[in-house]
Amino acid sequence: MLPEVYTRHRLVPAKGFADLRVGDLYPLPSRTLGDANFVAFQAVSLDNHPIHYDGEYCRALGFPGPLAHGLQILCFTAAGAGTFPHEIGTALIGMIEVRARILKSVFPGDTLYPLLEITELKPQRTTGLVTMRASVTNQHGDTVLDGEHVYLLRLEADATSDASG
């Protein structure tokens, strides 16, 4: 059972697996990428290729600036940035699969709009699989990333104990 302080400060009402529906949308906060995003990702990924960090190198190749790393764009689809994991609370066991296709380049100054959408719900004996489409569009409405997340949930989480205090 979760501490009462958690239940008093719950961001959204609790949902169990049975409450989820195909088509449920989970928009994530938009972000405009700046130099700090590129520097932070370089520090985490240890990727030192100049295509991601050297503006002059990129311009010499015909790009307007450094290209965001594909994994960096994928990171913006983290469910924890939105309400989904707060809704399902203790039912969440974890993310068990992720796939993504990078469709367009992303540069400093681009604004990204990530979105998760439930596309499949597969109940099992004691757990369930939630498949979500993960997409990211830019300020021009172009899809720059299209992918999928799969989460494993308990079917019978203690949703009532963490839903009210």
From TrEMBL:
CDD domains, per the entry: R_hydratase_like (cd03441)
Residue ranges constituting the MaoC-like domain according to the UniProt record: 29-138
Pfam families: MaoC_dehydratas
InterPro entries, per database record: HotDog_dom_sf, MaoC-like_dom, MCH/BMMD
Domain of life: Bacteria
Protein name: Dehydratase
Organism name: Sphingopyxis witflariensis
